[in-house]
User: What shape does this take?
Amino acid sequence: MGNEALGRQGSGLLARPVYALSRLHQILTARLERELAAVGLSLRTHQVLACVAENAGGSQQEVSDSIEVDRSEMVRIIDRLEQGGMVIRDRDQNDRRRYSLKLTPSGRRALQRSERVIEAATQDALSRLSESERGALHDLTLRALGESRPGRS
Assistant: This one.
């Protein structure tokens, strides 16, 4: 994963949790972008597909707000996903300004592929941690964000 690069960054910086988390994020993001590109996706398209899957029939605007993407960029992403046969975009019958989004079978398969890539990369990146430590890291990160794991309070 390139963890040896962490040591070269300087121990003073790694003394700060926010920097260590940022470095882990940078390393994982670069790896995920490479590995997702190999299956024809990106981290951003994965986020959109996952959000659409969770909120079938939700609007482009809701997806855009949920993952904090500029609305004009969201239009381009959805255009590409629609052209690729992964998403269906329909006008809302009650509000013609609103598009509702749904995954196609191809979109569901793409989401499953990207989930497998992300899971494998995560397992590898966090391989130095035990399963309980991984869970604790996840829980603590979510708590710092003011969130909790789905299914937990």
Remarks:
- The first strand starts at residue 87 and ends at 91.
- Strands lie at 87-91, 99-103.
- The mean pLDDT is 88.
